[in-house]
Amino acid sequence: MNERAAHILDEVRKYHQDVQDGGGFVPGVTEIWPSGAVLDEEDRAALVEAALDMRIAAGRSSRRFESAFARRMKRRKAHLTNSGSSANLLAVSSLTSPLLGDRRLRPGDEVLTVAAGFPTTVNPILQNGLVPVFVDVELRTYNTTVERLERAIGPRTRAIIMAHTLGNPFEAAEVARLAEDHDLLLIEDTCDAVGSTYDGRPAGTFGDLATVSFYPAHHLTTGEGGCVLTSNLVLARIVESLRDWGRDCWCEPGENDTCHKRFGYQMGTLPAGYDHKYIFSHVGYNLKATDLQGALGLSQLDKLDHFCSVRRRNWRLLREGLDGLPWLVLPEATPRSDPSWFGFALTVDPEAPFSRAALVDFLESRRIGTRRLFAGNLTRHPAYIDQPHRVSGELTNSDTITEQTFWIGVYPALTEEMIDYVVASIAEFVRSHG
Ligand SMILES: Cc1ncc(COP(=O)(O)O)c(C=O)c1O
């Protein structure tokens, strides 16, 4: 780095300190957001450094972030995308690739998923002409079980995609075994669960593919952004092709002829020697991320352990502080898991002398932010009512979630003082009603 750039970056770090909000926490006045980005002076400097270099498309930093993140997540390959939703679209689309031969999913094949989830975990199933099969989840863990999945398997069921809800891993080892026994492909939506483990093994390492979101609410942020992880090199190649317009060539931007055969292929009905850079083997997209995102991701990655440990501490303080309060169903970690929590879910007992709306209004009036457990029961949304799908069993708990559940934040900007205030506020509300 030249002297001028080093000077600018020093100034950027000082600027960052100057614009920090020095005001302390004022209960009832300071917003307690449910989620958000935690960005420090190094993040700001990383973005400016990438900007000074004018690395505006994918480049050096995105490649470095891909390999560092893959290493950290214990997968062989990571492909950055412009969002977690795009990562899910790529992961599901990759299962339809001709390169998978007989294992390839075909239109009308079924994919198991949960009804209480995030829409873009499910949408790629429909976008690929596949049929989602919705199963119910448990209250407290907000994940489904192997038994529910097993009961849902039909003759055309070929894959499973579902999220580790709010960072809490589903029974990943057992689900992976079920998938293997029934020749199903498994995608772990790990968008909310970076850093979580099941049986001591990272979430995102049990399936054929895993996806991550780097939107500001998530464990790491690149602004908008996401990533597909896999250790299967065929799937990695398919994901890359689908992400990069569907091309067959795998040269990075700015590279040429890394296979030493750029003009040596004959594919489809193209003339022999057609430039491999322009041969398309998939009906693809362009879902790439930029180098600014890569630079921010690298800088954020240094702080991942700290972020996860504060998330765990905040969740534990909420869990201990609210323990024993009547009318609230408190969350529980899946046995044998160590979640790196995304949020703290609360379900108001339907028999409670107060409604979810009243509790949420009270918290919001104290500037304590709340969120719904995403869509609740997706099948009740206008978008899905007329879409092809199958429901396995009853969706009773998904309906309860739609009507009674919300979550509050644990993200690393929340201090112990804020969490104490959240606990005191909920306790005050519940006791005043009972
Ligand atoms: C479980 C889950 N999957 C997918 C996504 C989509 O990620 P993105 O917002 O980056 O598109 C989210 C977003 O919060 C999510 O929570």
TrEMBL record:
Cofactors (names): pyridoxal 5'-phosphate
Pfam short name (any one): DegT_DnrJ_EryC1
Key words of the record: Aminotransferase, Pyridoxal phosphate, Transferase
The keyword Transferase is annotated on this UniProt entry: yes
Domain of life: Bacteria
SUPFAM superfamilies assigned: PLP-dependent transferases
Family: Belongs to the DegT/DnrJ/EryC1 family. L-glutamine:2-deoxy-scyllo-inosose/scyllo-inosose aminotransferase subfamily.
NCBIfam families: PRK15407.1 (NF011936)
Name of this protein: Lipopolysaccharide biosynthesis protein RfbH
Protein's organism: Streptomyces smyrnaeus
Gene: rfbH
